[in-house]
Amino acid sequence: MKKLYGHPESLKTVSTKYCAGCGHGVIHRLITEVIDEMGLQEKSIITNPVGCSIWADLYFDFDSVQPPHGRTPAAATGIKRVLPDHLVICYQGDGDLAAIGTAEIIHAANRGEKFTVIFVNNAIYGMTGGQMAPTTLVGQKATTAPLGRDPIDAGMGYPIQVCELLATLGGTRYLARGAVNTPANVRKTKQYIKKAFQAQMNGIGFTLVEILSQCPTNWGMEPVDAVDWLEKNMIPYYHLGEIKNELEGAAAGAAAASVADRGAAPASTGGTAGAGEGLGGAAAKGAAR
Amino acid sequence: MSEEKLLMKGNEAIAEAAIRAGCTAYFGYPITPQNELTAYMARHMLARGRIFIQAESEVSAINMVYGASSAGARAMTSSSSPGVSLKQEGISYAAGADVPLVVANVVRGGPGLGSIAPSQADYFQSTRGGGHGDYYTIVLAPKSVQEAADLTYLAFDLADTWRIPVILQADGMIGQMMEGVVLPPERDLKTLPKRDWAVGYQAGTGRDARHISSLDLVPENLEAKVRARFKRYEQIKAKEVRYELLGEDADLYMVAYGTSARVCLGAKKLAEKAGIKLGLFRPITLWPFPELALSKLAEKGKPFLTVEMSMGQLVEDVRLSVLGRAPVHLLGHCGGVIPTEEEVFAEAKRILGR
């Protein structure tokens, strides 16, 4: 008999500390399914960030390194340069990536570091208890924005669209945004992750998958309401899809370059936004708010 | 074959010694007065197929070192005082996760942006941990370009042996001056210590997944880990103390390291001509501090004169070692000012009433 479905080998069979309705568990599952499918369990290293997903090393059954808050891409840079044939996953939350670690993510992306960032965007700070994130939507309430995020009068700024921001950088090759609020979005997100991991193992430049995720606890709602809230509020602002995809053009170049090549990224100045729901539309919408 | 003596700048000798010690990954960010070190690494690491990155900040550089070392490489960064302040977060994490690494600090005047002239004002920072939490780093203080090369070479072995961050603390004078140096031999990378704790290369080993982390939310567990580390610190104190004592029979003992110690040597010669015996006690490891040797010297009851390019940092360790059994005096300068031989000799004479 052929086994059609089972628990991923790369994911331990333990209960997580994540809250009911949290998206991290689903995202962990997607990552490990892809790793198993690619046969990379013993060749994978994750940098687990400060934030709720600090616990990732309890759940993933492969090596991990835990860096300081926001320095995740810098540590992943060091790891990937030393072990260029390994799958290095830089797991980051919105505080880690888009607030305290903005310098690290921008420059790792710009250097075209050949690891994959899994960026979990739940528009709130989870571990510390519901503070405003750089990705908190305009008007969304947080413990540090009790009246809602007010970008102008209170000077709280605008929610950062990370994929669109990074799309202008020459080192980025694949930037996609998925979500884990519906089965269809979960399946699509898995495909983005697989594309990114395959690109990494083929030695193509910087890859990032942003995943919109629920945080019912800190959004102050039931898990079922949270998936609806994500659909109605986050997706209209954080457009789903492949925001930048230069994998095909890069694949030819990468085939010629050795995986062991530790040099800088190709001097390409690519960086045009992807199709449809890409940079232009989203940026225009952001400005309108 | 006779050993070749080269004329080299301190910063470049540190860089070349690191390469010869088997450093395969270097990450740095420009800051004066250590820029020649980063530039030397850029030329020579890439040429050897090793890893060099000019990072976007000192913060990133130290975390690249943390990642590279976790993945099994002998990794280092270098900077000067303001930049080393920025690295303290990463050094604390490395200490808490037992990740070995080497940081060269070519110290300049502070606080703040201070000056780019030589200083020893980072003594407290480097010998008291430097970042948050209970930990120490090994701190090596060279007095010459030769010793800068030798101690850099040693730093990588100490880091690996004890799984600890090691700071090579050279003041700006040591980094900038040129002297003759015989470089240590090139290490065969295949003979470097095995890192049976590093991540990567799990396939085919049958080992469990490895997790490099400084986190433990159970207070009793974290205390046990820190206490185990402090037992290791005691072993380091027992085995790795290094110092030099010149003139054991003396009327007064100067205590100084690095450039200050060189000045004291000059003062010692001036004193000899005047018939005054000055001794020089020179810590080479600032941590672990040679407290037992200094304590033994204090039993003679002769006065001590601490000479430092800081406003009374080293002198605190001297007082803690002497424990009131002899008078301890301080001649401190700051801001990049270097004491003179005449000044030190005059102060010694004043203390001795000569």
Q: Would you summarize the structure shown here?
A:
By secondary structure, chain A is α/β, with parallel strands linked by helices.
Strand order of the largest sheet of chain A: 2-1-3-4-6-5-7
- Structural class assignment of chain B: alpha/beta
Show unreliable segments of chain A.
258-289
Task: Provide the spatial order of strands within the biggest beta sheet of chain B.
Answer: 3-2-4-5-7-6-13
What Rg of chain B is obtained from the alpha carbons, in whole angstroms? 21 Å
Helical residue percent band of chain B? 40-55%
Distance from N terminus to C terminus of chain A (CA atoms, Å) equals 56 Å
What's the total number of strands of chain B? 15
Q: Strand portion of chain B, in percent?
A: 15-25%
Lay out the secondary structure:
The complex is a heterodimer of chains A (289) and B (354).
Chain A: H1 24-38, E1 44-47, H2 56-59, E2 63-65, H3 72-82, E3 87-93, H4 94-100, H5 102-110, E4 116-121, H6 162-166, E5 172-179, H7 183-201, E6 206-212, H8 216-219, H9 223-234, E7 241-245, H10 247-256, H11 279-288
Parallel strand pairs in A: 1-2, 1-3, 3-4, 4-6, 5-6
Antiparallel strand pairs in A: 5-7
Helix pairs in contact in A: 1-7, 4-5
Chain B: E1 5-9, H1 10-20, E2 25-28, H2 35-47, E3 51-54, H3 58-70, E4 75-79, H4 81-96, E5 101-107, H5 123-127, E6 138-140, H6 145-162, E7 165-171, H7 172-176, E8 178-182, E9 211-212, H8 219-239, E10 243-246, E11 252-255, H9 258-273, E12 278-283, E13 285-287, H10 291-298, E14 304-308, H11 314-322, E15 328-332, H12 341-352
Parallel strand pairs in B: 2-3, 2-4, 4-5, 5-7, 6-7, 11-12, 11-14, 14-15
Antiparallel strand pairs in B: 1-8, 6-13, 10-12
